[in-house]
Structure formats: C-alpha cells, structure tokens
C-alpha cells in the first residue's frame, strides 16, 4: 500500500467520483489513477467503489471506512512534515486562511500586517469564499484556519473559537430623509426598500430572525455578497442599506450616514476554526491571539481537549468578547 494510492482514493471521493477531474487536480493521468486504485483493491481484496460499466457509481461501505482511515493517515503525514519543518525553522512556513469577503476586506489587513512583521518568513495565503466553501476547504485540509460568522461546522473534528462580536447598522446617503434620525424602529425600516447581504452571508441569518421576531417582512429589493456592492447601490438610491458596522470606512464612506435601529439588531460572533488533531505551529497560536487577544495559547489548548462543541462554547461563556474593529480604525 502506497500513500499515493490513498491520495488518489481521497481525490476521487472529493471530486464526486470523477477520475478525470481528480487526475487534473493532482496533475497526473486518468489511466494512472485507475491503475493504482485497481492495485489497491487487489491488495486489500475488496472493492472500494461500485461500478456501472467503466464508470464509478458510488463507494462501497468498506470503501467509505477505508477512505476515513486514509484521511486520518494523510493528515498525520502532513503533521509529520509540519513537525519537521518547525524543527528546521520555527519562524518559517505557511499560514493558510479561508474566510469571507467581510473579514478579508475589513478585519484582517492590520492583523496580517502585524503578523508579517513578527514572522516575515511565513507565507500567508488568504482564500475567499462563501461560508460553505470555506468550510469545505478546511474539511479537505486545504487551509489551516477558517474565519467566519455564519454557522460553519459543528463537527467534533473541527474546533470553532469565538473571536469577536459585531453588529449591523443601517446606512443611507447624507441627503436621505432618514439621515437625521437617531434610531429607526424596525417597523418603520421594514417600509423602505432594503439593500443587504445574500442569504448565508455576514450575519444575514440573525438579521432575518430579528425581523421575524418583530413580526415583520422587510422589503429586500437587492442582495449582494459584500458590503462594497451594497454601499454602491445605496448611493445610487436603490434603497436603504443594512451592512456590518465594521464595513464603514472613514474617509471613504463619509457620504453615508450610519443609523441604529430600535430595537438594536442582534450581535453576531465571528469565529476562528481549525481541525482537531492538526499540527499547530507556534506562529499559528500567535495568529489566533493577534485576531482575538482573549484566545491565549493556554485557552486554545484547553479547547482542543474538549470533544463536545457545546463544551467549547461553555469555556468562553463568561468571556467579554472584543468588538471587531475595521482595518482603518
């Protein structure tokens, strides 16, 4: 049995049993992958895949079990490499982060800047995606951390730690009839056309719950994945905007007026997550603390020992989370 055979098995499962796509992703040939999978099946004496002619139609029950073991083995192989790399130079390596637009655009710039000053030899990769996409990146071991607000992964194999809290606010152009209001009742806000985030982005889930709790159905006329687009259409008069407060930039958004609501929108919590059992380089602990100062090495280590996601939440139940600060503050 070879590690490469296990990588081929993992890739075929990851890319929906499409051997051609798996071969493209691994930069090898389709016949080569097919041959190695046949050899693996012959060695094990069991079929790993169900076949319909020349095509794979599913995984056998034992194939799924062996895939799970393969994932663990390949993850430990990466941990061995990481341990050796750290022993050679603990100040060098890679830091791979998957996050959404709001975090990458408004929160991470000063944190990454401080991190690079502390660890100039570490290569930082930032992958942007939807909440579902960044969760998949972590499950496929393509990144070290995910940072997001919407519910991501509750699996016991993923540790999610609370990083900071933030709220939504209403934004209107300076000449808008609401611009001089101190706080807008939700009932009144619901009468205006609203421009805000797509479902599943930037706390939209909680915002929708706030309106439902008040018995209201807002008139959402346009949605977008990021606040820059929302602010653009607010400026064009499409409607009243609802965005994350962290997305307001001094000097750039002075033509927009932020407004509170009555009652206030619910707070959102942005979390940082990583896979249980992953090798944590020293600089990775430092990155977590730069993002969320209350997450010390000791507290992160304590969270790793907890197998129940709810137990992890209880560890930080009494923690006064910091408020997220935009990059310009």
Automatic annotation (TrEMBL):
Name of this protein: LysR family transcriptional regulator, cys regulon transcriptional activator
Gene3D superfamilies: Periplasmic binding protein-like II (3.40.190.10), Winged helix-like DNA-binding domain superfamily/Winged helix DNA-binding domain (1.10.10.10)
Domain HTH lysR-type: 1-59
Single GO term (MF): transcription cis-regulatory region binding
Stretches of the chain forming a coiled coil according to its record: none
Matching PROSITE patterns: HTH_LYSR (PS50931)
Entries under Pfam families matching the protein: HTH_1, LysR_substrate
Family: Belongs to the LysR transcriptional regulatory family.
